[in-house]
Amino acid sequence: DSGVTQTPKHLITATGQRVTLRCSPRSGDLSVYWYQQSLDQGLQFLIQYYNGEERAKGNILERFSAQQFPDLHSELNLSSLELGDSALYFCASSVAGSETQYFGPGTRLLVL
Amino acid sequence: DAKTTQPPSMDCAEGRAANLPCNHSTISGNEYVYWYRQIHSQGPQYIIHGLKNNETNEMASLIITEDRKSSTLILPHATLRDTAVYYCIVRVRESGGGADGLTFGKGTHLIIQP
Description:
A: 11 strands; B: four-stranded antiparallel β-sheet
């Protein structure tokens, strides 16, 4: 158990819909990262937040957004969903100044 | 981040040492070598990292060549639970506001045979 929690574990929705994925980092970790893992693209970094502020962006689509709240939990919002958005979404956290990232169990999203 | 090259798959007998190679010939002086693994559809798990000295922890050992152009992750007594995809990642060590996102390649699929 990494100490990072993600909800929900599974999500099934339809094209065009919007969903929100939630992540709670390890106690004391200030940085939260989001990753997407699909069969054809592998594990890809989407976005990072540090202490409530966006710090780095990866291959995140404009239809996707994220935020980190004062209690340091984070949400990833996916809108106008397409079939190709079906994937595993992982959240990771790290202590400020540490490059070791601890990953949550993931949310499996299926868009029908 | 420097590019890494890993074999796509490897087999190892249970109880034997698993040696996973990684080439990173373009590594810069301030880049570290990190290893993560992902057991089927679970979140990636940090294993070990190093700069130039060999490192060992409770999970594995990391051997980095003197020229730092390659490294080997060693699982001393592989078990069936070590079957996973192993990722070698080379990156600069961040400070202050945390590290950037990791760049995962395709990794090595290690299969431990009973």
